[in-house]
Amino acid sequence: MPVKSRRSEQRLRAARLARHYREQERLSIAQIAQRLGRSPATIRGYMYDPDGSRARSVKESYRGECSRCGAATSGSGPGHARTVCARCNGRSTAKWDRPRIEQALRAWFELHGREASSTDLSLDYARARAPRDGGVGLRRLQQGWAGGQWPAASVVQYHFGSVRRANRVALH
Length: 172
What we know:
By secondary structure, this protein is an all-alpha fold. Helix content is about 60%, strand content about 0%.
């Protein structure tokens, strides 16, 4: 069963239970919330919008369309929809692409005589190891290369799947 319909069923079941507690047992919103382990605002939502259709239509009115790719965008209120979707926004602000990562990994190999590992590119790992290695790894990362800072291991993994695969592409 798709997740959305399962969630809808769960909401409807909880709304029916909340309505039962309200009408049959005459419980307050706060008492129902405590009994169901939900917030009072959620219980009010169940009472006034049992199937969530009103909330969906309000949320839908906030949406816009990406000016670059046509995908749906979110917004903070009516008339405040974003003009660019999250994917296009991320792409336009991205600092690293595959060719630049390959260039950085070739520079690493030339400078250090070996392929970069994920720990070599991890600032957190370098900081944690600094007391044990005298800060060698941290200084190496902070110094960077002619093209600037080294790419983070997570960025390399995003583009290539793994640092090992990125090295293979860059060096062979």
